[in-house]
Write a structure and sequence with these properties.
about 40% helix, Rossmann fold, GMP Synthetase, Chain A, domain 3, 3 domains, alpha/beta, 28 strands, single chain
């Protein structure tokens, strides 16, 4: 349902009635174990071998962790932190806490000790699970500054500073266990109410101090059930998990949603091993962020351009055929005749290879965390790989809207979920209201009041628009560039155009309160260095390569040639090249690979200032 005035843009949309009555994560957990009972509820790689954990073993270990936490003195209503990469123990610890009535606090394993100490103190965590020696050493370093932490529990034996291992904790929960204990544990776990706190997730944040987002069992439950009512899972589905479980996107979609629907979750070894894991696991569902799709597309394009003349022509012919086939499908028509014949040939010659790269049986890609370039989404769709793009924030548990197989529109983030309302404010900001909206920010009542107005509308900080009930994100409100001349520029669409070029890895627009925008570009060095060798250029390091006038001219030509449909004031007037990619460790990216624009602007201020010198800015 949408609402609008005649001749005015849509300002309101609703996903309709809630998908199910309020519920809890503990309820979802027990229901899934009883209903599915798969031998491979969780999968992980040990050495060269993939191993499985069944629902029965999962349930038993979760119970022993919950009872073990009680045995060491962690009480219902307290907080326990989880400092770990994606792995089965993360899921075990999470469900162990939830079924014990304990709220958990996920911590990104990329954080430094001082940041970890802040979260442990602010959340009043009384214990912390640590995954590896590296994470254990971080906690050991700051242990004296977090006196509230009484227990450090290592996922492995003998981690430095750990008070006990996960195996020892489970043993404490299993010792002397009777049938009555098991029944009592289950009954107490199911006493949890939808309004009870489930977790405190600290926003990675592109600006400012991290805030502890308080999410309830009901917040997550509503989100899971709403998505399941729109995107049903299939028997035998397998999901490959690699986005950080510390983030609400993977937590809800890649963890709770998959468990609730009986999907087997396989934990990737790392992002670097992703393509290899695709081939080994052969997933049917993958939850990702745009940066991964951009990299896959860039690799496909690079392979085509570096092939012989015949293969190159075949690729671009197939891409053109796929593009026309997609236009027909997206318009609701069935491609036929010569186009259908050509598409079948394109599928065999080109698209089948892309499908094989992601395991050969992928059914659905899911994208969130940042806007996905429509061109990339359409390319995957034309290859027979559907990417369901959605939208939300940590504070919304996280999904507000999403595309579905039945209601799919590229360039949008779909329609609001059942039970969720969306409103566009007069300044273009997206507001949302529903059962998925957080309780508030821990210890920050003023920030909570700023985020949620008296009518219950959460202010997302994103700019967007509605059309036919579909939501489109224009940009982040704080990212909007306002030039010295008063022109408003949404940088992300411009950056996405630039990143479509094979020579561009990252692109960041800068220009707030300046006379005009400029762009910082990290080249795709794999492509650039191949080109430079063909031109017989000599260099000893990347900085030296980028300093060469021929290279600068090449990148400028490629970037400006990729930008189209822009107003004159939106076009970056100058480009500067950076000799290394942005990273989470370097502080330029959030854990979900979103660019921290202000950090990059400040870090490269001297370089940015130099771009304006000749113009007297």
């Amino acid at each position: 349902m949408t609402a609008t005035l005649p001749g005015a843009p849509e300002t309101f949309a609703t996903g309709g009635p809630v998908a199910s009555p309020p519920g809890t994560l503990t309820g979802l957990f027990f229901e899934a174990v009883a209903k599915y009972n798969r031998p491979d509820a969780l999968q992980y790689k040990a050495g060269a071998e993939w191993r499985s954990i069944s629902h029965a073993v999962l349930a038993e270990r979760v119970r022993h962790i919950a009872r073990g936490l009680r045995a060491i003195g962690v009480n219902r209503g307290e907080q326990v932190a989880i400092l770990s990469e994606n792995r089965p123990e993360w899921a075990l610890a999470d469900y162990g806490c939830l079924t014990a009535g304990i709220a958990d606090v996920p911590i990104y394993p990329t954080l430094i000790p001082e940041q970890i100490a802040y979260i442990l103190r602010d959340s009043r965590s009384v214990a912390v699970f640590v995954s590896t020696e590296e994470q254990a050493r971080k906690v050991a370093e700051i242990r004296a500054s977090v006196p509230g932490v009484t227990h450090v529990i290592g996922f492995a034996e003998g981690l430095p500073g750990a008070d006990l291992s996960l195996a020892q904790l489970e043993k404490k929960g299993a010792d002397g266990e009777t049938a009555g204990d098991i029944a009592r544990y289950r009954a107490e776990a199911l006493e949890v109410k939808p309004d009870d706190l489930a977790t405190i997730i600290y926003t990675s944040g592109t600006t400012g101090e991290p805030k502890g987002t308080m999410l309830t069992h009901g917040n997550f439950h509503s989100n899971v059930q709403a998505v399941l009512s729109l995107v049903p899972m299939q028997h035998g589905d397998i999901a490959l998990s690699f986005l950080p479980l510390s983030h609400s996107f993977e937590r809800t979609v890649g963890h709770y949603l998959m468990h609730a629907s009986g999907v087997s979750v396989a934990y990737a070894e790392s992002v670097d091993a992703l393509l290899a894991n695709f081939g080994e696991v052969r997933p049917t569902i993958v939850v990702s962020v745009p940066r991964i799709y951009e990299k896959i597309y860039a690799r496909v394009l690079e392979n085509a351009l570096s092939s012989g003349a015949i293969k190159k022509r075949i690729f671009f012919w197939a891409r053109d055929v796929g593009d026309r086939w997609a236009d027909e499908k997206l318009a609701g028509r069935t491609p036929g005749g010569l186009l259908a014949f050509k598409y079948s040939i394109a599928g065999k010659l080109v698209f089948s290879k892309l499908k094989a790269r992601v395991g050969g049986r992928l059914r659905l890609f899911v994208s969130g965390g940042a806007p996905l370039a429509p061109e990339i989404n359409k390319f995957f769709y034309s290859a027979g790989l559907t990417i369901l793009e959605g939208y939300g924030l940590t504070e919304t548990s996280p999904i507000i809207s999403c595309n579905t197989p039945e209601h799919f529109r590229i360039g949008t983030v779909g329609r609001p979920l059942p039970g969720v309302d969306v409103k566009i404010a007069s300044d273009g900001e997206i507001l949302s209201r529903g059962p998925n909206i957080m309780l508030g920010y821990l210890n920050k009542p003023e920030a909570t009041r700023e985020a949620i107005d008296p009518e219950g509308w959460f202010h997302t900080g994103d700019i967007g628009e509605l059309k036919d009930g579909f939501l489109r994100i224009t940009d982040r409100k704080k990212d909007i560039i306002v030039t010295a001349g008063g022109k408003n520029i949404a940088p992300q669409p411009v950056e996405n155009q630039a990143k479509m070029n094979k020579y561009v890895s990252q692109a960041v627009m800068i220009g707030d309160k300046r006379k005009f925008p400029v762009m910082l570009v990290v080249p795709n060095f794999e492509s650039l260095e191949k080109w430079a060798k063909l031109k017989n250029l000599l260099w000893t390091n990347r900085a030296q390569l980028l300093a060469q006038p021929l290279v600068k001219a090449k990148i400028e030509k490629e970037v400006f040639g990729s930008l189209h449909g822009l107003a004159n004031f939106e076009m970056p007037k100058k480009i500067a090249l950076l000799d290394r990619d942005f990273s989470i460790e370097g502080g330029e990216l959030t854990p979900t690979l979103k660019v921290k624009r202000r950090v990059i602007d400040q870090r490269h201020r001297t370089l940015v200032d130099s771009l304006y010198i000749d113009h007297g800015d």
